């Protein structure tokens, strides 16, 4: 018996010591003593703090990376990502944010936040009711408190030891390049900061096969949450706090769960509220839909390889910061020179400026404002025009060969007859753009949004159009041979007589489009979807159709199709 | 309740405490019986009625067989028992599988489908039905006298350490442990008092600690990598498939042998000896040797109650091979109502048959000094394990098309490495665990680690327990993985 007691005591001692060490470990980790890197740049204070607000979709933004990016551009600003904030509960915490007098709030509004949720069972979607933005919004009399989110409630039983251990090891081994904003510094502000957990990237090919849930729209929730959002924005506006509003990125398979009408409606709802308060609005929902940066269908991973999301957010923030500056690094006399090559004009306001007949090749216009500027007959070979607003810019005879036009806004721009060989237009938004008889091989139009673009008789061979959304394109007789259209959506477009031979059309969705007489020979059409599309006299010679769907399409006129 | 939860620890401590306090044999056994039924009820709710049914059926049929005068009557009673047990097992385990196959055929022929019953698989049914079958068959064969006490028999069937996932006990080994010894060869029918001996306590705790370590530290931390590899196996490179096979092999071994160690350790603490279920299977030098080391209680059961009654190897070569394949086919099917388990069983049946053929063709190989050489043994181990891990693919990948793909990749190497290297870099910790596992396995190969650890000085023993606990706790993921063999 005595021996048994001794043995039991040994077990008890081992048990108690092990658990004691574990508890100590949790406490030290929670206090930020084991891993977290304190903020080294900038002091948290009036007008030099940016809050990233929103639910878990915003949680994946690496606030430290954003902060460092802004710092590279000379802005000493603290970027903080407070813990999970649903819209209506945020009403109860507004004082916390406003009292810190941030310079800017970046507010992410996900579709789930405004009522598009997972359900068990079937979805019976009623006709989409409109949402009317309230004219005058005030905070409700009873502010809903979000229990448990104001203070850190330390519960040992809710900690995940494995995650904490890995976090510490990665810090020790120097593998953790993502820096968390220290919780210690949160004592200077009265908000609890986010510590995001979805850090593994799942291959986008797996995620895009299907979604695990059934989704449905709850319009009552939408109306309630949008009203709350409007109230929040009203308070920010009242307190002179600028807000950048965005829809966070999702995978293609998740976006397919939303009907186009519903998606447009929801985006429009958020955009309307933003515009009411004169806040900038950005739709990033489709932007990375086929990129390998997601941990699940709706969350970008908190991972070194997903920093493009954080960089995009930084690029949205920069113009707001530069709005305080009338110029950056140049004087007016500079524009009188003819040779303006290799000059850094990044984030400069050049709107309405006359910059015609100049040589601006290799110059950097990243983030500059070129709206209504006159760039006619200007040479802009290999210039950087990324994140530029080129709306209504005059580009007659402008040479844009090899220019970097990624993430550029091209509205009402005439690029007809242009040589766009090797030009990069990745991520750009082209609205009402003329590209008639423009030409360019090896150009990059991937991930663009092209609305009402005219590419009649243009020639873009071996061009990358993958992941693009193309609405109302006119490309009569255009040459797109050997091009990559994979994962694109081509809606309401007229491609009559175009050449899409030897192209990659896998995972493309053609909806309500005209492919009369289009040459599709030797093209790849795996998982291609054609809905309500006219394919009369189209040439499908040597096409391999694998897992493709044809809905409401007259198949009788397809010749030379090999189906697998 | 899972062994690896606080509920089980609390439950076990309470049972031990009550056993120590209650010193009378009958009451101790009733406490154990009650605890076992409570354990089962906690896991399975109303399905405890099936356990009761099995227990009552075989207790009374066993008695009836023993007292039956004619062989014909004995046979009838035996068949009734088998029908009852196998009927129960077949109904709950295979009826939906059967309906699925019928529906597939019906679809082809254009008939309407039969709705599936959606039955829950009662936990442990595969194990306790085999236990009760062995009891009845041994009585029929004259190797065992039936238990006179229903409580004693019920405890044999429901003994909680091994109830839900084995090892499969034999009545001839367990029932005497419940009875008082008069002499070495003689038992009374009186239930013995259970005493917790310090040696058994220490060895039992050591064994349980190692079991928890294998399951919670190795198996559970390798599982995510296995899931990642096999969730969408299409497109995997050959090296990734092999990595997945090895990882799953280590996972299932850690899981199952860990569970067995916990069961054996817990039984040992209570003063019962349960036979070992694993004996370094990844050092097996041949398929036959593998089945002498892996899930030993099942392979012995299959040998004694299926292979030998079918004729074993006594009815000519062809019949031997047929018997081997039949036994392994049924063994595969026992593991689950799915074609991949059948394929797994058939693969092992094929391995055993091929080995028999080779030995028959080259009889001198068996006792040759050349084959006993160390480097030849190593080659034998590597070749055997190559095929064993290949069979694990069939065990793990349920979809037949995906299984064909991975088996093809396992056999026909593509020598591509890009995504394997990426996978390795994302799964450094599980890889380290797999390497660590093989190193520890090698170290313990010729040493009785449990004995050695149980006899070290108390301060070092505390250090050992503390180390195990710290490793388990610091790498514990709050979403516990189920024991794989619970599904059977």
Estimated share of beta-strand residues of chain B:
under 5%
Mean pLDDT of chain A: 78
Runs of chain B in which pLDDT lies below 50 for 5 or more consecutive residues are: none
Shape of chain A: globular
Radius of gyration of chain A over all CA atoms, rounded = 27 Å
Proportion of residues in extended strands of chain A: 5-15%
Largest sheet of chain B: 2 strands, antiparallel
SSE blueprint and pairings:
The complex is a heterodimer of chains A (564) and B (488).
Chain A: H1 2-30, E1 49-53, H2 56-59, H3 63-72, E2 78-80, H4 87-90, H5 94-98, E3 104-108, E4 116-119, H6 161-172, H7 204-207, E5 214-217, H8 219-238, E6 242-247, H9 252-255, H10 260-276, E7 280-283, H11 307-322, E8 409-411, E9 429-431, E10 449-451, E11 469-471, E12 489-491, E13 509-511, E14 524-526, E15 529-531, E16 543-546, E17 549-551, E18 561-563
Parallel strand pairs in A: 1-2, 1-3, 3-6, 6-7, 8-9, 9-10, 10-11, 11-12, 12-13, 13-15, 14-16, 15-17, 16-18
Antiparallel strand pairs in A: 4-5
Helix pairs in contact in A: 3-11, 8-10
Chain B: H1 6-21, H2 25-44, H3 48-67, H4 71-109, H5 125-140, H6 150-158, H7 160-163, H8 171-178, E1 179-181, E2 187-191, H9 198-231, H10 238-269, H11 287-293, H12 296-307, H13 317-335, H14 339-361, H15 374-396, H16 400-411, H17 418-426, H18 428-443, H19 449-454, H20 458-474
Antiparallel strand pairs in B: 1-2
Write a brief caption for the model.
The complex is a heterodimer of chains A (564) and B (488). With 564 residues, chain A is α/β, with parallel strands linked by helices.
Written description of the protein model:
The complex is a heterodimer of chains A (564) and B (488). Chain A is α/β, with parallel strands linked by helices and 564 residues long. Chain A has eleven helices and 18 strands. In chain A, the strands form four sheets. Chain A has an eight-stranded parallel β-sheet with strand order 8-9-10-11-12-13-15-17, with no helix packed on it. Chain A has a five-stranded parallel β-sheet with strand order 2-1-3-6-7, sandwiched between helices. In chain A, α3 packs across α11 and α8 packs parallel to α10. The termini of chain A are far apart. Chain B contains 20 helices and two strands. The mean pLDDT of chain B is 87. In chain B, 70% of the residues lie in helices and 2% in strands. By secondary structure, chain B is mainly alpha-helical. Chain B has a two-stranded antiparallel ribbon. The two termini of chain B are 16 Å apart. Chains A and B meet through α1 and α6 of A and α9 and α20 of B.
């Amino acid at each position: 018996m005595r021996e048994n007691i001794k043995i039991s005591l040994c077990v008890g001692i081992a048990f108690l010591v092990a658990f004691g060490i574990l508890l100590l470990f949790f406490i030290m980790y929670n206090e930020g003593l084991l891993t977290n890197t304190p903020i080294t740049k900038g002091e948290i204070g009036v007008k030099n703090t940016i809050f990233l607000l929103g639910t878990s979709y915003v949680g994946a933004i690496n606030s430290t990376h954003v902060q460092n990016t802004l710092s590279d551009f000379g802005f000493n600003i603290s970027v903080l990502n407070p813990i999970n904030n649903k819209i209506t509960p945020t009403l109860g915490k507004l004082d916390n944010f406003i009292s810190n007098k941030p310079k800017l709030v970046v507010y992410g509004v996900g579709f789930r936040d405004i009522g598009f949720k997972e359900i068990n069972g079937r979805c019976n979607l009623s006709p989409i009711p409109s949402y009317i933005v309230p004219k005058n919004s005030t905070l409700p009399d009873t502010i809903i408190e979000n229990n448990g989110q104001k203070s850190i409630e330390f519960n040992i039983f809710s900690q995940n030891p494995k995650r904490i251990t890995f976090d510490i090891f990665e810090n020790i081994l120097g593998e953790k390049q993502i820096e968390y904003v220290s919780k210690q510094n949160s004592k200077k502000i009265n908000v609890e900061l986010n510590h995001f957990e979805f850090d593994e990237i799942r291959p986008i090919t797996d995620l895009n096969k299907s979604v695990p849930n059934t989704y449905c729209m709850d319009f009552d929730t939408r109306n309630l949450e949008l009203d709350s959002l409007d109230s929040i924005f009203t308070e920010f506006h009242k307190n002179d706090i600028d807000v950048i509003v965005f829809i966070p990125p999702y995978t293609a398979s998740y976006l397919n769960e939303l009907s186009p009408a519903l998606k447009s409606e929801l985006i429009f709802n958020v955009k309307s509220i933003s515009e009411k308060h004169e806040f900038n609005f950005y739709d990033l929902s489709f932007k990375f839909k086929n990129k390998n940066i997601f941990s699940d269908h709706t969350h970008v991973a908190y991972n070194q390889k997903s920093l493009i999301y954080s960089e995009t957010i930084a690029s949205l923030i920069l113009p707001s910061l530069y709005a305080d500056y009338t110029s950056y690094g140049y004087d007016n006399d500079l524009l009188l020179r003819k040779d303006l090559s290799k000059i850094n004009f990044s984030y400069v306001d050049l709107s309405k400026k006359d910059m015609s007949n100049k040589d601006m090749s290799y110059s950097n216009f990243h983030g500059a404002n070129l709206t209504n500027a006159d760039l006619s007959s200007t040479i802009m070979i290999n210039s950087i025009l990324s994140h530029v607003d080129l709306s209504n810019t005059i580009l007659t005879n402008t040479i844009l060969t090899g220019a970097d036009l990624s993430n550029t806004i091209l509205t009402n721009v005439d690029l007809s007859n242009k040589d766009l060989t090797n030009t990069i237009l990745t991520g750009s938004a082209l609205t009402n753009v003329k590209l008639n008889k423009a030409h360019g091989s090896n150009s990059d139009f991937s991930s663009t949004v092209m609305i009402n673009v005219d590419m009649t008789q243009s020639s873009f061979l071996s061009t990358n159009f993958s992941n693009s959304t193309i609405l109302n394109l006119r490309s009569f007789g255009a040459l797109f041979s050997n091009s990559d259209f994979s994962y694109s959506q081509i809606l309401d477009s007229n491609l009559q007589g175009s050449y899409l031979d030897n192209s990659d059309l896998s995972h493309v969705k053609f909806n309500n489009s005209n492919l009369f007489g289009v040459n599709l020979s030797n093209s790849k059409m795996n998982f291609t979807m054609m809905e309500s599309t006219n394919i009369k006299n189209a040439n499908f010679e040597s096409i391999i159709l694998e897992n493709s769907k044809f809905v409401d399409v007259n198949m009788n006129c397809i010749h030379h199709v090999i189906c697998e | 309740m899972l062994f690896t939860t606080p509920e089980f620890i609390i439950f076990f401590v309470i049972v031990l405490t009550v056993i120590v306090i209650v010193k009378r044999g009958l009451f101790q056994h009733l406490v154990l019986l009650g605890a076992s039924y409570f354990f089962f009820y906690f896991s399975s709710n109303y399905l405890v009625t099936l356990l009761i049914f099995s227990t009552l059926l075989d207790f009374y049929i066993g008695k009836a067989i023993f007292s039956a005068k004619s062989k014909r009557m004995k046979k009838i009673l035996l068949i009734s028992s088998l029908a009852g047990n196998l009927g129960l097992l077949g109904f709950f385990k295979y009826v939906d599988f059967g309906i699925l196959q019928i529906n597939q055929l019906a679809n082809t022929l254009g008939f309407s489908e039969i709705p599936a019953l959606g039955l829950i698989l009662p936990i442990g049914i595969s194990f306790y039905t085999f236990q009760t079958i062995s009891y009845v068959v041994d009585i029929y064969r004259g190797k065992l006298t039936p238990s006179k006490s229903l409580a004693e028999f019920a405890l044999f069937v429901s003994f909680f350490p091994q109830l839900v996932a084995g090892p499969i006990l034999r009545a001839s080994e367990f029932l005497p442990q419940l009875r008082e010894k008069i002499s070495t060869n003689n038992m009374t029918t009186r239930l013995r008092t259970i005493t917790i001996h310090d040696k058994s306590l220490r060895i039992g705790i050591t064994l349980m600690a190692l079991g928890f370590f294998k399951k919670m530290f190795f198996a559970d931390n390798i599982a995510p990598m296995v899931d990642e590899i096999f969730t969408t196996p299409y497109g995997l490179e050959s090296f990734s498939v092999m990595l997945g096979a090895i990882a799953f092999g280590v996972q299932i071994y850690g899981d199952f042998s860990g569970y067995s160690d916990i069961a054996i350790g817990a039984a040992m603490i209570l003063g019962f000896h349960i036979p070992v279920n694993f004996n370094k299977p990844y050092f097996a030098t041949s398929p036959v040797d593998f089945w002498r080391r892996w899930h030993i209680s099942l392979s012995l059961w299959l040998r004694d109650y299926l292979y030998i009654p079918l004729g074993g190897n006594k009815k000519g070569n062809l019949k031997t091979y047929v018997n081997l394949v039949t036994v392994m086919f049924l063994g595969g099917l026992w593991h689950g109502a799915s074609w991949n388990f059948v394929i797994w069983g058939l693969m092992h049946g094929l391995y055993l048959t091929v080995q028999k053929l080779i030995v028959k063709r080259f009889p001198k190989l068996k006792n040759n000094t050349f084959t006993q050489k160390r480097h030849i043994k190593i080659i034998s181990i590597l070749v055997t394990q190559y095929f064993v891990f290949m069979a694990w693919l069939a065990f793990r990948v349920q979809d037949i098309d995906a299984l064909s793909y991975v088996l093809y990749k396992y056999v026909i190497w593509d020598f591509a490495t890009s995504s394997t290297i990426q996978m390795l870099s994302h799964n450094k910790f599980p890889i380290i665990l797999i390497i660590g596992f093989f190193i520890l396995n090698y170290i313990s190969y010729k040493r009785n680690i449990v004995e050695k650890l149980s006899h070290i000085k108390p301060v070092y023993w505390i250090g050992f327990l503390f180390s195990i606990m710290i490793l388990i706790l610091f790498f514990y993921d709050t979403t516990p993985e189920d024991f794989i063999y619970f599904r059977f």
